[in-house]
Amino acid sequence: MAEINFTKLLVHLVVLVDVVLLHVAYATYFERKVIGHMQMRMGPTRVGPMGLLQPIADGIKLFFKEDIIPAAADRPLFYAAPIICLVAMLSCLAVLPFDPNHVLADLNIGLIFIFAMSSLASYGVVLAGWASNSKYSFLGGMRSMSQVISYEIAMGLSLVGVMMMTGSLNLGQIVAAQAASPFGIYAIPQFIGFFVFVVSMLAETNRVPFDLPEAETELVAGYCTEYSGIRFSLFFMAEYIGMIVMASIGTICFLGGWNGPFTVPYVPFFWFLLKIYAIMFFFFWVRATLPRYRYDQLMDLGWKFLIPLALANILLTGLMKTVLE
Amino acid sequence: MAALEQRSMEIPIPAQEKELFALKMGPQHPATHGVLRLDLFLDGETIAICKPDVGYLHRGFEKIAENKSYAQFLPITDRLDYIGAMANNVGYCHAVETLLNIEVPERANYIRTIVAEMSRISGHLLWLATHALDIGAMTVFLYCFREREILLDLFEELCGARLTTSYTRLGGVRQDVSALFMDNLTKFTDDFPTKIADYETLIDTNRIWLKRTQNIGVISGKQAVQLGFTGPTLRGSGVDYDVRKHRPYCVYDRLDFQVPLGRKGDIYDRYLCRMEEFRQSVAIIKQCLEQLPPGPIVNDDAPDLIMPITPQRKVAADSIGSSGIIQLMEDRNIYMEGDVYVSTEAPKGELGFYFVSDGEGRPYRMHIRSPSFIHIGGIPAICEGEMVADVIACIGSLDVVLGECDR
User: Fold this and answer.
1) Is the residue at B298 inside a domain?
2) Would residue B175 count as lying in a domain?
3) Using CB atoms and an 8 Å cut-off, which of residues 35-94 of chain A contact chain B?
4) What value of ipTM does the predicted structure carry?
5) Sign of CA dihedral B390, B393, B396, B402
6) Which of A39, A41, A294 has the CB atom closest to B389's CB atom?
7) CATH number, residue B91
8) Does residue B83 fall inside a structural domain?
9) Containing structural domain, residue B235
10) B31, B137, B146 ranked by CB distance to A290: nearest
11) Which residues pair with A117 in a beta bridge?
């Protein structure tokens, strides 16, 4: 019996990782197409019909590129850093409920687990910056560390309101409680929390306008300056999985998870995917529109604006809850 | 001994510098616009000391000029500020014509003004594109290149080349404008103001853009003059100096245009100045297109493209001159002896040519006063005390091109 469960779990795991990696590959295609059209150009068109095979070509190219390791690098850490990043991000996927019946690990502390893992991913970034023994990587790693620490707090606080309304940290229960709430989604009653979450989501995933750790015009490529070939693509995948995870948390905690206006037969995760891709589109839209913040301005925004706002939201949620009861 | 003291011109390294974080930015850094190298000494992320290092693109233009005739040197001016080759051509020819005392026909002067302003627009477009990209606004970059493409196509229609135009020649211009060119340019001048509005909606009042540019890289008017800044970089600090107004050349004295000025001298003011120059340049082109007179495009007495180094005068072979056969006679009194400095307003600033002539068909010595070189000298004054991210914004706001700086 135990053996069967183990096999089933393994199959589940492999399918999940494969599906997500496929999504990651096509998220890059989606991004290039979306930004391309926003900027009045075509995006990829050459490989396959409408450039549809482009992500695969990119993957093959990166896989066969020479793997260069700087002579002065700290080798064990240099090897470990991208793996830490990717593994931490992949393990977040385990607790995500894609629909009521599909969740790999139904943890009671799902939300906390995701926070822990996404913080661990930034550990990989810091190690990468440190182990490369390059000045640009070092600055990128330092920036990433302080950025993630600041915005982790804001993000955690922004979700406290949701936890208070649900009374649970289990992601499945959050969705279920949300469906029973008056508006069906928490983005309306928790609009302050949602706003803080969206901003810190951008910062947490190192996306524009908070892409300071890898600001190419200042730090060449930040923490991954010295990485090449498959190691670079591990970081790249980790970033996109991070985006998918953050979009999933946003969907689960604020946009009602797998629930939608009507049920789509045979595709229980239809609404979930749609919402994730809506948030991903938002990521790309922001990237095509906004310039980049400066390091100290980012800190100002985090500590002086977002964290007080999130705290006010908690206070407000608590008051409302007391008054309504 | 004196020589030894001279060597200490290099900035002495303070004792505390050893504890600073030394970062060599460039010459292969994505945002230093070519091959500029900055030796930064950081205190945290704040710049304590900044030392620009130039010369990676040195090609010895000034020495080459001593071995080529005035006409032969023209294509090399394309490679100075390779973004605005037309403006360099106009500036160089204007300087040589002043030295050799060559008259330029009216129509050629108008065409020169048009192409100089087109090159200003295309230069500023590239500046806006890269400046915005440096600060992270990626879309502006591609929008600007879209319009720049139209201008480059117009250059191609005019003279067959997009970047290295070599369009002017001593005593006029190489080809006359075609009807297609006139039509397309008119269309461009009508469309372009709406495109400027497009760029402005993306960044002009963008909160992040303002935070990144306002009160950063401030340079007062007095300081800017002391550092020798010219062009929009100087005018951003509120100093009213424009060669087009103060020492008019071509037909600028007949045209109605304003010189935009900034107030504070920060990155944002320099940005606003250049954005306004877009509109002024369009206005200038429009006026030129309306006033463009008919007539010859090149002075008949102007030296040939194959210009002899030893001055020669054309004389008729027979005494009456009816045979049409022309003989060349050596005459050392054609070209002026002495020196002359003539400057024009290039997109980057005041582009000056200084010639010392000994009466030959080539300069005895030529010096190019390139605005980029002088602006790079001002980078430490602007950057020190700011943050790493601001260095990029500051360099962008100075609009330097290394081809012109290192020449």
Assistant:
1) yes
2) yes
3) 35, 38-41
4) 0.77
5) positive
6) A294
7) 1.10.645.10
8) yes
9) 61-303+319-366+393-402
10) B137
11) none
